[in-house]
Amino acid sequence: MTGGPPHAYRVTKYDPADRDEHGHYQGPLDITSDHGPVEAAYLAAVAAFARDSGVDRLAVREPALAPNTPDRDPALADLFPDGVHDGAEVAIPAAQQLVQHMLRDSGGFWGRIWCRLEHGDLLTVHIGWDQYMYIASHRPCEQAVADTRRLGLHPEPIPHSPYRHDPADEDGTRRPADDTFWADLADLAVRHDRVLLEEGYAGNTARWHRVTAAGLPGLRPRLAPRARLTVWPDLRDDTAAVAADLPDGLHEVVWQDADGTVSGRLCTEDDHDQTRATLAAATAAAVLSGYADDRVPLLAAIMTDPDGVLRARWSV
Known about the structure:
Largest sheet: 7 strands, antiparallel
Strand content: 25-35%
Distance between the termini: 19 Å
Helix content: 10-25%
Number of strands: 14
Structural class: alpha+beta
Order of helices and strands: EHEHEHEEEHEHEEHEHEEHEE
């Protein structure tokens, strides 16, 4: 694992003078965004570090959305006209809007979207829990540090961002979705008549496709860049049987509506009544475990970039 750009800062609203001997904040400020001047200071700090770093765009890395976020979420449509995906590039004003989303709802991973914002080894912006922002640059950014202090925030030098990507955290497969994968998928589709393809374009979120071997050539170019692809047995036509056998615990229900749309939703036993109502109008359905260790697909791979190179860092 590389440490990222060499000049890293923890940028927060918390005065270091209010930390105890263990570094834990003991002051009066709460952990939520004020949706006002303090939040605006965080966003201005992002722009200041970008300016000092000579960076005008950042790439979205390892995006994750809140569970059951609708496809093409209207709240994110202006930021991602082509849809959210790993590697999408945004200008600094759009990056500031993403930071704003991540700072709200207690910050970290509970908001509408979470992602790393990075420009290679030139600049990284990571948002953690409780209004902690980590910025690292290839330059010391003395002017940005001074500007951030004038904004009322506290930029503290640190060795590196604790949210930098660590390949050791990826415990799945990193098979590229190359021609061999597509040939294997076509073979599965022939042998099973049809299979279910999960297009994981962001964490916690996927699009679903019932595919045949004949339909694969048309589907492949429509999939999101760098999506995680997992292949499952096809949906069952006996939706009543699926509804009668819903499990307890976390599970994912996948169903096809009468118009052919395939959707998925994470559920627990508390959602059984709603799930059964949904399945009553469905034409096909299946249930998958919601626990990663129990999800064993028929096939899995990650979409490569158009030049055939696998640049996504996540696994599947």
